[in-house]
Design brief:
Chains A, B: This is 2Fe-2S ferredoxin. Chains A, B: It comes from Anaerosporomusa subterranea. Chains A, B: Keywords: Iron, Iron-sulfur, Metal-binding. Chains A, B: InterPro entries: Fdxn_Clost-type, Thioredoxin-like_sf. The structure is a homodimer. The first copy, chain A, has about 100 residues and is an alpha+beta fold. Chain A has a single domain, classed as Glutaredoxin (3-Layer(aba) Sandwich). The first copy, chain A, contains 3 helices and 4 strands. A 4-stranded mixed beta sheet of chain A has the order 2-1-3-4, covered by helices on one side. The model of chain A has no long low-confidence stretch (mean pLDDT about 90). At the A-B interface, helix 2 and strand 2 of A face helix 2 and strand 2 of B.
Chain lengths: ~100, ~100
């Protein structure tokens, strides 16, 4: 397999059992996930940038949480409207979006 | 927050909608997740090593999938019995377990 150069993880509050507990989900974690998928597709970055939904990162009050590896950059309170900026500045430009950093 | 030095992601087939589709789940992804949590606790590594369950990585035939960042190391067909070796050699020892690499 070709490993991604960047891997975006988006909390959608999925518990291992399938039950969903809430905060990032309620705060539109799924919309954030879908917007990232759309942007990755439109920019034809599918080979370089992976995206995966996750369970809880333990920072629920600051959700929706987005984590980017290998950078180890953690974003808080991400909305679907923030996704283009993260894609432009960070994923394509290499500089984290400071206003959203945890 | 203190960022983890290593972050272990375990596929438990959790879809963003909460529905679980299957393969890593059926192949004991949840047991793998639980075993990692137990080992991290017993070794008192909770501050350094994070663990998060995920949705599908798109490599279902090779599941359960475990991904370790920032190393960008991808493991296939991981069972609960493999977890101690991954913890010993890779997470604590710094060397990936080659027999499980994708």
């Amino acid at each position: 397999m070709n490993k991604p150069n960047r891997h975006i993880f988006v909390c959608t509050s999925s518990r291992p059992t399938g039950q969903q507990k809430g905060m990032c989900l309620n705060k539109e974690g799924v919309s954030v996930m879908m917007k990232f998928m759309e942007e990755i597709g439109e920019r034809d970055l599918g080979g370089d940038v992976a995206i995966t939904n996750t369970g809880c990162f333990g920072l629920c009050e600051q959700g929706p949480i987005v984590v980017v590896y290998p950078d180890n950059v953690w974003y808080k309170k991400v909305s679907a409207d923030d996704v283009e900026e993260i894609m432009d500045k960070h994923i394509e430009g290499g500089e984290p979006v400071t206003r959203l950093l945890i």
